[in-house]
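Page 47, continued from p. 46.
Same chain as before, 439 aa.
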Amino acid sequence: MIESRALKKRDLYLNKLIGFQDTEPVKVVTGIRRCGKSSLLKLMVGHLRASGILPEQIVEMNFESHDYRVMGSDDLYRYVKQRVVPGRRMYLFFDEIQRVEAWEDAINAFRVDLDCDIYVTCSNAHLLASEYATYLAGRCVEIKMLPLSFREFLDFHGFELRETASALGGTRRQAFDQSGERYDLREVFDAYLRFGGMPGIAEVGLDQERAMTLLDGIYATVVIRDILEREKRRGQRQITDPVLLRKIIRFLADNIGSSVSIASIGNTLVNEGLLEDGRRRGSPSAHTVQAYVDALLESCFFYEIKRFDIKGKAYLRTLGKYYIVDLGLRNYLLGIRDRDSGHIIENAVYFELLRRGYDVSIGKVNSAEVDFIATTAGEKLYVQVTESMRSEEVRARELAPLKMIRDNYEKIVLSPDPGLESCFDGIQSLDLIDWLLDA
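Result:
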């Protein structure tokens, strides 16, 4: 077993788990495969041991292990019950719990029968949204885990941020690797956009061939185990064609940040001969595409974002957008290119807003669009994202929608090339890299 002292910290998520320690809700960590959920459980185990919890009070089970491959809910219940320490609270950690048939029955029984604190991970958001909620409505809390942020990327890959003298006076931040080599932050940020934030990349290094091999394994596992096999286990035969699934994945990856409809995906696939046209053959092509897209959303491979009418104060049923959970996976699927770099940095901003706890939507104001409206219980933030703010034409285009909004919430434009001006009529123009690092 990897000991927690050898693991890189993921304090954003660990602190959430610690905050719910010894409370009734089952702690459910969701997220795409290989984003760090198993390591997070090990970090929590390390925290418990450091705080005085005895090793025999902790039960850890990873259902990816061959040891547990034929275990059902009754077997799971007996296994844990045999390890209960009388008079002590038990801490139960179940990794990839969805691989156990009828696992919900065992978890619910533990809650009723034992003095215990339960932590589980699963690689499918649907598990919490439907099946699990039936058993534990109101008695579970979800921790949504994402691949590495840019700041975590620096830490995992051994970069240290230091303030250095700037030729223009003052200081600037630069990254230094473990051998003392100095890098401009934009150079390291470009590596982040290229390799993505899967923690395993840090183990193979920033090497193109090895990184793509690792990402190939993640992709295959998500598609085969979390989508195709899961559908088979549930007795559903909607998701049966791996070739069609890959085509839809590539379509969505190619169109991150663009307005997309189920119909537009279906039309593209019909034109390529990959999907029957329902108007000609009676095949419900839109329903088929919707089922495949839903499976990708449930596996946390893609995230959907809806439009919000700022003036009408209502969500719209019109076109939404999709973002891919990891840009390294996108580069694996499509190859590395820079023709849509604006949407690439937009993708990075979207997931950073999610990490910071915001609910995120697209903003519509008259006929114009605000890239993101980010809200929490007591805060709202309007965000535009662009490659550069140096051009007068670009500045006018990016600022215009924000100027139409009449409330007093914060409005910002994020760019890796923000120019010299930092404020336009109360709208902040911020350096994207600084914003990512200054959470």
